[in-house]
Protein backbone atom coordinates (compact mmCIF):
# COMPACT_ATOMS: atom_id res chain seq x y z
CA UNK A 1 0.00 0.00 0.00
CA UNK A 2 2.77 2.37 0.92
CA UNK A 3 4.52 1.49 -2.30
CA UNK A 4 1.46 2.50 -4.35
CA UNK A 5 1.15 5.66 -2.26
CA UNK A 6 4.81 6.49 -2.84
CA UNK A 7 4.49 6.03 -6.63
CA UNK A 8 1.49 8.36 -6.74
CA UNK A 9 3.36 11.00 -4.81
CA UNK A 10 6.32 10.70 -7.12
CA UNK A 11 4.12 11.05 -10.21
CA UNK A 12 2.29 13.97 -8.69
CA UNK A 13 5.43 15.86 -7.64
CA UNK A 14 7.68 14.66 -10.51
CA UNK A 15 10.39 13.43 -8.13
CA UNK A 16 12.41 10.22 -7.94
CA UNK A 17 12.91 7.73 -5.08
CA UNK A 18 15.96 9.43 -3.61
CA UNK A 19 14.19 12.77 -3.41
CA UNK A 20 11.11 11.17 -1.78
CA UNK A 21 13.34 9.31 0.69
CA UNK A 22 15.05 12.57 1.60
CA UNK A 23 11.65 14.16 2.32
CA UNK A 24 10.59 11.17 4.43
CA UNK A 25 13.77 11.16 6.50
CA UNK A 26 13.38 14.87 7.14
CA UNK A 27 9.86 14.32 8.27
CA UNK A 28 10.88 11.46 10.64
CA UNK A 29 13.60 13.60 12.18
CA UNK A 30 11.19 16.45 12.72
CA UNK A 31 8.53 14.09 14.11
CA UNK A 32 10.92 12.54 16.63
CA UNK A 33 11.78 15.97 17.93
CA UNK A 34 8.10 16.88 18.12
CA UNK A 35 7.23 13.67 20.09
CA UNK A 36 9.99 14.44 22.54
CA UNK A 37 8.55 17.87 23.26
CA UNK A 38 4.99 16.58 23.22
CA UNK A 39 5.70 14.09 26.03
CA UNK A 40 6.58 17.00 28.23
CA UNK A 41 3.11 18.53 27.81
CA UNK A 42 0.01 17.75 29.88
CA UNK A 43 -1.73 14.45 29.07
CA UNK A 44 -5.26 14.11 27.72
CA UNK A 45 -5.21 17.60 26.36
CA UNK A 46 -7.37 17.37 23.21
CA UNK A 47 -6.72 20.97 22.23
CA UNK A 48 -2.99 20.42 22.22
CA UNK A 49 -3.37 17.19 20.24
CA UNK A 50 -5.41 18.83 17.48
CA UNK A 51 -3.02 21.70 17.36
CA UNK A 52 -0.06 19.39 17.11
CA UNK A 53 -1.59 17.43 14.25
CA UNK A 54 -2.32 20.58 12.32
CA UNK A 55 1.20 21.73 12.97
CA UNK A 56 2.64 18.44 11.69
CA UNK A 57 0.47 18.47 8.61
CA UNK A 58 1.37 22.07 7.78
CA UNK A 59 5.04 21.26 8.31
CA UNK A 60 4.93 18.41 5.80
CA UNK A 61 3.04 20.50 3.27
CA UNK A 62 5.47 23.41 3.78
CA UNK A 63 8.48 21.14 3.33
CA UNK A 64 7.03 19.70 0.15
CA UNK A 65 6.22 23.22 -1.13
CA UNK A 66 9.70 24.54 -0.43
CA UNK A 67 11.27 21.52 -2.10
CA UNK A 68 9.10 21.81 -5.18
CA UNK A 69 9.75 25.57 -5.41
CA UNK A 70 13.53 25.35 -5.14
CA UNK A 71 13.70 22.33 -7.45
CA UNK A 72 11.70 24.21 -10.07
CA UNK A 73 13.96 27.23 -9.70
CA UNK A 74 17.04 25.07 -10.01
CA UNK A 75 15.80 23.56 -13.29
CA UNK A 76 14.86 27.00 -14.64
CA UNK A 77 18.23 28.43 -13.72
CA UNK A 78 19.93 25.54 -15.47
CA UNK A 79 17.91 26.22 -18.64
CA UNK A 80 18.67 29.95 -18.42
CA UNK A 81 22.40 29.22 -17.97
CA UNK A 82 22.34 26.98 -21.05
CA UNK A 83 20.66 29.71 -23.14
CA UNK A 84 23.15 32.30 -21.93
CA UNK A 85 26.02 30.02 -22.84
CA UNK A 86 24.55 29.50 -26.33
CA UNK A 87 24.21 33.27 -26.76
CA UNK A 88 27.82 33.77 -25.73
CA UNK A 89 28.99 31.17 -28.20
CA UNK A 90 27.02 32.63 -31.12
CA UNK A 91 27.43 36.36 -30.50
CA UNK A 92 30.68 38.29 -30.09
CA UNK A 93 30.18 41.93 -29.20
CA UNK A 94 33.80 42.79 -30.04
CA UNK A 95 34.03 41.07 -33.41
CA UNK A 96 36.06 38.12 -34.51
CA UNK A 97 39.62 38.59 -35.77
CA UNK A 98 40.99 35.66 -37.71
CA UNK A 99 44.65 34.94 -38.13
CA UNK A 100 46.32 36.03 -41.37
CA UNK A 101 45.69 33.63 -44.22
CA UNK A 102 48.37 33.27 -46.93
CA UNK A 103 47.11 34.71 -50.22
CA UNK A 104 49.84 33.37 -52.46
CA UNK A 105 47.55 30.87 -54.10
CA UNK A 106 44.82 33.48 -54.63
CA UNK A 107 47.12 35.92 -56.52
CA UNK A 108 49.02 33.28 -58.45
CA UNK A 109 48.85 33.77 -62.20
CA UNK A 110 47.70 37.39 -62.15
CA UNK A 111 50.94 38.68 -63.69
CA UNK A 112 50.38 36.54 -66.76
CA UNK A 113 46.66 37.35 -66.85
CA UNK A 114 46.58 41.13 -66.37
CA UNK A 115 49.99 42.51 -67.51
CA UNK A 116 48.73 43.34 -70.98
CA UNK A 117 50.97 46.44 -71.21
CA UNK A 118 54.05 44.27 -70.64
CA UNK A 119 52.83 41.82 -73.28
CA UNK A 120 52.51 44.63 -75.85
CA UNK A 121 55.92 46.08 -74.96
CA UNK A 122 57.58 42.67 -75.21
CA UNK A 123 56.14 42.14 -78.69
CA UNK A 124 56.83 45.62 -80.07
CA UNK A 125 60.16 46.64 -78.48
CA UNK A 126 62.37 44.65 -80.95
CA UNK A 127 61.06 46.87 -83.77
CA UNK A 128 61.86 50.20 -82.06
CA UNK A 129 65.17 51.91 -82.88
CA UNK A 130 67.15 54.77 -81.39
CA UNK A 131 68.14 57.51 -83.86
CA UNK A 132 71.03 59.84 -83.10
CA UNK A 133 71.93 62.84 -85.24
CA UNK A 134 75.67 63.55 -85.32
CA UNK A 135 77.08 66.96 -86.25
CA UNK A 136 79.91 66.20 -88.66
CA UNK A 137 81.43 69.66 -88.15
CA UNK A 138 81.86 69.39 -84.40
CA UNK A 139 83.91 66.70 -82.69
CA UNK A 140 84.23 65.57 -79.12
CA UNK A 141 87.56 66.67 -77.62
CA UNK A 142 88.20 63.37 -75.84
CA UNK A 143 86.88 60.76 -78.28
CA UNK A 144 87.39 62.59 -81.55
CA UNK A 145 83.93 61.46 -82.72
CA UNK A 146 81.21 63.78 -84.07
CA UNK A 147 79.09 65.34 -81.32
CA UNK A 148 75.42 64.50 -80.90
CA UNK A 149 73.16 67.26 -82.20
CA UNK A 150 69.80 65.65 -81.38
CA UNK A 151 68.13 62.30 -81.02
CA UNK A 152 64.81 60.63 -81.59
CA UNK A 153 63.13 57.32 -82.24
CA UNK A 154 61.76 55.28 -85.08
CA UNK A 155 60.44 51.81 -85.81
CA UNK A 156 61.02 49.18 -88.47
CA UNK A 157 58.22 48.89 -91.02
CA UNK A 158 59.92 46.48 -93.45
CA UNK A 159 62.27 43.60 -92.79
CA UNK A 160 64.78 44.93 -95.36
CA UNK A 161 65.80 47.80 -93.05
CA UNK A 162 63.21 50.51 -93.78
CA UNK A 163 62.52 52.68 -90.73
CA UNK A 164 59.68 55.17 -90.24
CA UNK A 165 60.22 58.26 -88.12
CA UNK A 166 59.40 61.99 -87.92
CA UNK A 167 60.81 64.34 -90.52
CA UNK A 168 61.94 66.83 -87.90
CA UNK A 169 64.08 64.11 -86.29
CA UNK A 170 66.31 63.52 -89.32
CA UNK A 171 66.35 66.80 -91.27
CA UNK A 172 66.56 69.33 -88.47
CA UNK A 173 70.25 70.10 -88.88
CA UNK A 174 72.55 70.49 -91.89
CA UNK A 175 75.88 68.68 -92.18
CA UNK A 176 74.58 65.85 -90.04
CA UNK A 177 74.83 62.06 -90.00
CA UNK A 178 72.05 59.69 -88.99
CA UNK A 179 73.13 56.83 -86.71
CA UNK A 180 70.64 54.07 -85.90
CA UNK A 181 70.93 51.66 -82.97
CA UNK A 182 68.79 48.52 -82.74
CA UNK A 183 67.57 46.95 -79.53
CA UNK A 184 70.21 44.22 -79.71
CA UNK A 185 72.94 46.91 -79.66
CA UNK A 186 73.95 46.86 -83.32
CA UNK A 187 74.60 50.29 -84.83
CA UNK A 188 74.29 51.36 -88.46
CA UNK A 189 74.57 54.58 -90.42
CA UNK A 190 71.21 55.36 -91.96
CA UNK A 191 70.28 57.07 -95.18
CA UNK A 192 67.26 59.35 -95.32
CA UNK A 193 65.19 58.15 -98.31
CA UNK A 194 61.87 60.00 -98.28
CA UNK A 195 60.59 63.06 -96.47
CA UNK A 196 57.18 64.69 -96.16
CA UNK A 197 57.44 67.94 -94.24
CA UNK A 198 53.68 68.48 -94.37
CA UNK A 199 52.81 65.32 -92.46
CA UNK A 200 56.20 65.38 -90.64
CA UNK A 201 57.11 61.86 -91.75
CA UNK A 202 60.35 60.44 -93.10
CA UNK A 203 61.93 57.08 -93.85
CA UNK A 204 65.48 55.98 -93.10
CA UNK A 205 67.11 52.85 -94.50
CA UNK A 206 69.89 50.86 -92.87
CA UNK A 207 71.97 48.17 -94.63
CA UNK A 208 70.58 45.07 -92.92
CA UNK A 209 67.88 42.52 -93.68
CA UNK A 210 65.86 39.98 -91.77
CA UNK A 211 64.60 42.45 -89.18
CA UNK A 212 61.34 42.23 -87.27
CA UNK A 213 58.83 44.71 -88.70
CA UNK A 214 55.94 46.36 -86.89
CA UNK A 215 52.51 46.17 -88.49
CA UNK A 216 50.66 49.41 -89.15
CA UNK A 217 47.11 49.27 -87.82
CA UNK A 218 44.07 51.29 -88.82
CA UNK A 219 43.85 54.58 -86.94
CA UNK A 220 40.33 55.16 -88.30
CA UNK A 221 39.05 52.38 -86.04
CA UNK A 222 40.58 53.92 -82.93
CA UNK A 223 38.15 54.98 -80.19
CA UNK A 224 38.54 57.54 -77.40
CA UNK A 225 39.38 55.83 -74.13
CA UNK A 226 41.36 52.98 -75.68
CA UNK A 227 44.59 51.94 -73.97
CA UNK A 228 47.71 52.83 -75.97
CA UNK A 229 51.42 52.30 -75.37
CA UNK A 230 54.12 54.76 -76.46
CA UNK A 231 57.62 53.40 -77.05
CA UNK A 232 60.80 55.27 -77.83
CA UNK A 233 63.98 56.76 -76.44
CA UNK A 234 63.02 59.77 -74.31
CA UNK A 235 66.02 61.84 -73.23
CA UNK A 236 68.33 59.26 -74.89
CA UNK A 237 66.92 56.47 -72.68
CA UNK A 238 66.44 53.66 -75.15
CA UNK A 239 63.52 51.22 -75.05
CA UNK A 240 61.33 53.21 -72.65
CA UNK A 241 57.64 52.39 -72.33
CA UNK A 242 54.77 54.64 -71.26
CA UNK A 243 51.04 53.94 -71.32
CA UNK A 244 47.84 55.94 -71.36
CA UNK A 245 44.53 56.31 -73.13
CA UNK A 246 43.37 58.02 -76.29
CA UNK A 247 41.92 61.43 -75.41
CA UNK A 248 40.79 62.30 -78.93
CA UNK A 249 41.05 60.54 -82.28
CA UNK A 250 40.36 63.58 -84.49
CA UNK A 251 42.20 66.61 -83.11
CA UNK A 252 42.29 69.02 -86.07
CA UNK A 253 45.45 70.84 -87.06
CA UNK A 254 43.58 74.16 -86.90
CA UNK A 255 42.98 73.51 -83.19
CA UNK A 256 46.76 73.16 -82.77
CA UNK A 257 47.56 76.25 -84.79
CA UNK A 258 49.00 74.21 -87.67
CA UNK A 259 48.19 74.74 -91.33
CA UNK A 260 48.78 71.27 -92.77
CA UNK A 261 45.11 70.22 -92.89
CA UNK A 262 45.70 67.07 -90.84
CA UNK A 263 44.15 65.44 -87.82
CA UNK A 264 46.11 64.12 -84.85
CA UNK A 265 45.63 61.55 -82.11
CA UNK A 266 45.68 63.14 -78.68
CA UNK A 267 46.80 60.95 -75.76
CA UNK A 268 47.87 61.31 -72.15
CA UNK A 269 50.68 58.77 -72.58
CA UNK A 270 53.95 60.53 -71.76
CA UNK A 271 55.73 61.60 -74.96
CA UNK A 272 58.93 63.59 -74.54
CA UNK A 273 61.55 64.83 -76.99
CA UNK A 274 63.26 61.50 -77.63
CA UNK A 275 59.92 59.74 -78.17
CA UNK A 276 59.41 61.60 -81.44
CA UNK A 277 59.19 59.13 -84.29
CA UNK A 278 58.46 56.15 -82.06
CA UNK A 279 55.30 54.06 -82.38
CA UNK A 280 52.03 54.54 -80.53
CA UNK A 281 50.55 51.05 -80.44
CA UNK A 282 47.24 49.51 -79.43
CA UNK A 283 46.78 46.42 -77.28
CA UNK A 284 47.04 44.18 -80.33
CA UNK A 285 50.61 45.33 -80.93
CA UNK A 286 49.81 47.40 -84.03
CA UNK A 287 51.16 50.89 -84.64
CA UNK A 288 48.18 53.22 -84.84
CA UNK A 289 50.22 56.41 -84.58
CA UNK A 290 53.68 57.97 -84.77
CA UNK A 291 54.66 59.97 -81.69
CA UNK A 292 55.08 63.57 -82.74
CA UNK A 293 54.94 66.23 -80.03
CA UNK A 294 54.14 67.03 -76.45
CA UNK A 295 52.49 70.25 -75.33
CA UNK A 296 52.49 69.62 -71.58
CA UNK A 297 52.05 66.76 -69.15
CA UNK A 298 48.99 64.78 -70.20
CA UNK A 299 48.69 66.45 -73.63
CA UNK A 300 50.64 64.75 -76.41
CA UNK A 301 49.94 64.17 -80.08
CA UNK A 302 50.67 61.42 -82.58
CA UNK A 303 50.34 61.27 -86.36
CA UNK A 304 47.64 58.71 -87.32
CA UNK A 305 48.90 55.53 -88.96
CA UNK A 306 46.59 56.06 -91.94
CA UNK A 307 48.74 59.05 -92.96
CA UNK A 308 51.83 56.85 -92.64
CA UNK A 309 50.31 54.19 -94.91
CA UNK A 310 49.57 56.79 -97.56
CA UNK A 311 53.06 58.24 -97.17
CA UNK A 312 54.74 54.83 -97.62
CA UNK A 313 52.61 54.03 -100.64
CA UNK A 314 53.23 57.37 -102.34
CA UNK A 315 55.35 57.37 -105.52
CA UNK A 316 57.65 58.66 -106.72
CA UNK A 317 59.61 58.95 -103.51
CA UNK A 318 60.21 62.44 -102.22
CA UNK A 319 63.89 63.17 -101.88
CA UNK A 320 65.11 64.80 -98.70
CA UNK A 321 65.54 68.56 -99.03
CA UNK A 322 68.98 70.08 -99.36
CA UNK A 323 69.15 72.19 -96.25
CA UNK A 324 72.25 73.99 -97.44
CA UNK A 325 70.19 75.63 -100.23
CA UNK A 326 66.95 76.00 -98.29
CA UNK A 327 65.87 78.33 -95.57
CA UNK A 328 68.14 79.13 -92.68
CA UNK A 329 68.40 76.83 -89.70
CA UNK A 330 67.59 77.81 -86.11
CA UNK A 331 67.24 74.43 -84.32
CA UNK A 332 63.85 74.43 -82.58
CA UNK A 333 60.56 72.56 -82.77
CA UNK A 334 57.56 74.74 -82.06
CA UNK A 335 53.80 74.71 -81.79
CA UNK A 336 51.38 77.52 -82.55
CA UNK A 337 49.44 78.64 -79.49
CA UNK A 338 45.81 78.66 -80.52
CA UNK A 339 43.11 79.88 -78.08
CA UNK A 340 42.14 76.27 -77.32
CA UNK A 341 45.71 75.27 -76.46
CA UNK A 342 46.22 78.37 -74.34
CA UNK A 343 43.03 77.61 -72.39
CA UNK A 344 44.05 73.97 -71.87
CA UNK A 345 47.52 75.00 -70.70
CA UNK A 346 46.03 77.34 -68.13
CA UNK A 347 43.69 74.63 -66.90
CA UNK A 348 46.74 72.45 -66.30
CA UNK A 349 48.42 75.15 -64.19
CA UNK A 350 50.92 76.12 -66.91
CA UNK A 351 52.38 79.65 -66.53
CA UNK A 352 50.67 81.39 -69.43
CA UNK A 353 50.03 85.09 -68.58
CA UNK A 354 46.48 86.33 -68.95
CA UNK A 355 47.49 88.98 -71.50
CA UNK A 356 49.00 86.38 -73.87
CA UNK A 357 46.64 85.37 -76.67
CA UNK A 358 49.10 84.52 -79.47
CA UNK A 359 52.59 83.19 -80.04
CA UNK A 360 54.44 79.90 -80.50
CA UNK A 361 55.52 77.43 -77.85
CA UNK A 362 59.09 76.16 -78.09
CA UNK A 363 58.96 72.54 -76.99
CA UNK A 364 62.35 71.32 -78.24
CA UNK A 365 65.75 73.03 -78.61
CA UNK A 366 68.58 71.12 -80.27
CA UNK A 367 71.85 71.19 -78.36
CA UNK A 368 74.52 73.22 -80.12
CA UNK A 369 72.01 74.89 -82.45
CA UNK A 370 71.78 78.67 -82.95
CA UNK A 371 68.66 78.71 -80.78
CA UNK A 372 70.48 76.90 -77.98
CA UNK A 373 73.46 79.22 -78.24
CA UNK A 374 71.17 82.25 -78.25
CA UNK A 375 69.45 81.27 -75.02
CA UNK A 376 66.13 79.74 -76.07
CA UNK A 377 64.82 77.03 -73.76
CA UNK A 378 62.06 74.43 -74.00
CA UNK A 379 58.81 75.93 -72.70
CA UNK A 380 59.55 79.48 -73.88
CA UNK A 381 56.71 81.33 -75.60
CA UNK A 382 57.79 83.55 -78.50
CA UNK A 383 55.40 86.48 -78.86
CA UNK A 384 57.34 88.90 -81.13
CA UNK A 385 60.22 88.75 -83.64
CA UNK A 386 61.91 92.03 -84.56
CA UNK A 387 58.95 93.89 -83.08
CA UNK A 388 56.31 92.05 -85.14
CA UNK A 389 53.71 89.89 -83.33
CA UNK A 390 53.97 86.16 -83.92
CA UNK A 391 50.57 84.62 -84.59
CA UNK A 392 51.68 81.21 -85.89
CA UNK A 393 54.76 79.09 -86.61
CA UNK A 394 54.56 80.28 -90.22
CA UNK A 395 55.66 83.74 -89.06
CA UNK A 396 58.89 82.25 -87.68
CA UNK A 397 59.53 80.41 -90.95
CA UNK A 398 58.90 83.62 -92.87
CA UNK A 399 61.49 85.46 -90.77
CA UNK A 400 64.01 82.66 -91.37
CA UNK A 401 63.39 82.94 -95.11
CA UNK A 402 64.08 86.69 -95.14
CA UNK A 403 67.75 86.94 -96.11
CA UNK A 404 67.86 90.62 -95.16
CA UNK A 405 67.42 89.74 -91.51
CA UNK A 406 70.81 88.65 -90.24
CA UNK A 407 69.58 88.16 -86.67
CA UNK A 408 66.21 87.59 -85.05
CA UNK A 409 65.41 89.67 -81.95
CA UNK A 410 62.81 87.63 -80.09
CA UNK A 411 60.54 88.61 -77.22
CA UNK A 412 59.86 85.55 -75.10
CA UNK A 413 57.99 84.62 -71.93
CA UNK A 414 59.85 82.10 -69.75
CA UNK A 415 58.17 79.38 -67.73
CA UNK A 416 58.66 81.42 -64.53
CA UNK A 417 56.69 84.33 -66.05
CA UNK A 418 59.66 86.58 -66.90
CA UNK A 419 59.66 88.52 -70.17
CA UNK A 420 63.03 88.44 -71.90
CA UNK A 421 64.64 89.45 -75.18
CA UNK A 422 67.02 87.06 -76.91
CA UNK A 423 68.90 87.36 -80.18
CA UNK A 424 69.24 84.34 -82.47
CA UNK A 425 71.56 84.29 -85.49
CA UNK A 426 70.36 81.49 -87.84
CA UNK A 427 72.80 79.43 -89.86
Question: If you had to describe this structure to a student in words, what would you say it looks like?
Answer:
It is a single chain. The chain is an alpha+beta fold. It folds into four domains: 83 residues, no CATH class; 89 residues, Beta Barrel (Thrombin, subunit H); 95 residues, Trypsin-like serine proteases (Thrombin, subunit H), CATH 2.40.10; 93 residues, Pdz3 Domain. The protein contains eleven helices and 18 strands. The strands form three sheets. The chain has a six-stranded antiparallel barrel with strand order 1-2-3-6-5-4. The chain has a six-stranded antiparallel β-barrel with strand order 7-8-9-12-11-10. Strands 13, 14, 15, 16, 17 and 18 form a six-stranded antiparallel sheet that branches. Helix 2 packs antiparallel against helix 3. The longest helix has 45 residues. About 3% of the residues have low confidence.
pLDDT < 50 stretches? 40-44, 320-325
- Return the domain count: 4
Inertia-based shape: elongated
Largest sheet: 6 strands, antiparallel, barrel
What string gives the helices and strands in order? HHHHHHEEEHEEEEEEEEEHEHEHEEHEE
Q: Name the helicity range.
A: 25-40%
Amino acid sequence: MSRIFNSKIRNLLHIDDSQLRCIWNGYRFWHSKHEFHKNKELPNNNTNTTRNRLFVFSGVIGALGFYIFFEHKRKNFKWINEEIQKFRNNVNLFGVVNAAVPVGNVLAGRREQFNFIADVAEKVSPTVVYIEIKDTRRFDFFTGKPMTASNGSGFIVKEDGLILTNAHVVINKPHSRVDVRLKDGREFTGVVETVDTVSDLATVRIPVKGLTALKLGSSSKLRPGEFVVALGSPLTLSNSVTAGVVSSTQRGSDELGLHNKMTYIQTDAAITFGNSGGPLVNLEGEAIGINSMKVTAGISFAIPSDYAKAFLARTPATKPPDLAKGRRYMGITMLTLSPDIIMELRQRKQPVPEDVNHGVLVWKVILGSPAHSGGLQPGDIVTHVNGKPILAAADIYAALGDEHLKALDMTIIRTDGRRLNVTITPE
